[in-house]
Recover the amino acids of this structure.
């Protein structure tokens, strides 16, 4: 973000600070949750930001009127809460009628720019986007969500915007195919991050894009992943149905990624997430059968993979197994 916080009194009023606090409370968010959401928004938009812990302190100061967000921070807060800096009391409201023509012009300019970006997508741009998805998927397969979440979230947003503004059917189908694969993987990442609501949304985006691309198999994968999320909402440990989780819920195949020998010497042929699912399944089965030693060994391996990949969901499941 630009410039950090400025001293209170440069802009804003006591009532304005109450608006900022009210916007957070309307969403039922704690300051810690708001700081996390703000940090993730900054990551998606490429804005520089403090860590969530420091942001929480800043939010408290802003809401208490002890400091005023700088212009870049006001814009992020407005986007986060679906408002404007003036609507949050962070800037004076424009005089009546003063902003009408400017607002219309700015909106029209934004639409023209979005249409121009989509129209500029040709074979070369599609190849670059496909390479970007392939690279991001490979990074996810090697190092997991912790390493690939930011790049993938930005790519999904970019593909979604391009697809929404393309008027060429062929280009639309190609972009939809890429978005389907990217959103499917994004849903898996949000599941890793213990955010089933976002995973559900991402799988829905993947299914819609796959149908637009004429790819029923990917649409079916997205539907099956939603079914899995629905089942997991009950909080039960995964059942052993005689098939691996990888077989029941195959990884996205929109982009083929080759996994050769890992630098550690671990040759599995599977992405990190699928290896983690297999070991988790082994740990759960051993736990249910009362095989404490095998359960502990599998849980230790799963914990190592979960920490490497940043899977909060797996760590929470392992904590339940260890009780």
């Amino acid at each position: 973000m630009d410039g950090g916080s400025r001293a209170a009194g440069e802009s804003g009023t006591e009532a304005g600070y109450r608006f900022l606090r009210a916007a957070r409370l309307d969403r039922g968010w704690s300051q810690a949750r708001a700081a996390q959401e703000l940090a993730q928004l900054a990551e998606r938009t490429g804005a520089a930001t403090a860590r969530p812990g420091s942001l929480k302190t800043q939010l408290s100061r802003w809401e208490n009127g002890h400091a005023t967000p700088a212009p870049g921070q006001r814009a992020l807060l407005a986007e986060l809460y679906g408002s404007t800096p003036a609507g949050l009391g962070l800037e004076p409201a424009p005089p009546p009628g003063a902003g009408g023509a400017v607002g219309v012009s700015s909106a029209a300019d934004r639409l023209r720019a979005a249409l121009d970006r989509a129209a500029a997508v040709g074979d070369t741009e599609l190849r670059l986007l496909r390479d970007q998805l392939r690279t991001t998927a490979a990074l996810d397969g090697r190092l997991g969500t912790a390493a690939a979440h930011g790049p993938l979230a930005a790519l999904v947003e970019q593909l979604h915007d391009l697809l929404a503004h393309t008027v060429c059917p062929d280009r639309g189908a190609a972009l939809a195919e890429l978005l389907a694969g990217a959103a499917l993987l994004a849903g898996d990442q949000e599941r890793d991050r213990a955010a089933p609501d976002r995973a559900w949304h991402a799988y829905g985006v993947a299914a819609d894009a796959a149908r637009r691309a004429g790819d029923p198999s990917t649409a079916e994968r997205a539907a099956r992943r939603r079914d899995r999320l629905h089942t997991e909402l009950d909080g039960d440990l995964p059942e052993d149905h005689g098939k691996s989780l990888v077989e029941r819920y195959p990884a996205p195949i929109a982009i083929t990624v080759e996994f050769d020998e890992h630098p550690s010497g671990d040759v599995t042929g599977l992405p990190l997430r699928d290896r983690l699912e297999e070991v988790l399944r082994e740990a759960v089965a051993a736990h249910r059968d009362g095989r404490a030693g095998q359960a502990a060994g599998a849980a230790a391996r799963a914990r190592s993979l979960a920490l490497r990949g940043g899977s909060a969901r797996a760590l929470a499941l392992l904590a339940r197994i260890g009780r």
The chain has 14 helices and two strands. The radius of gyration is 23 Å.
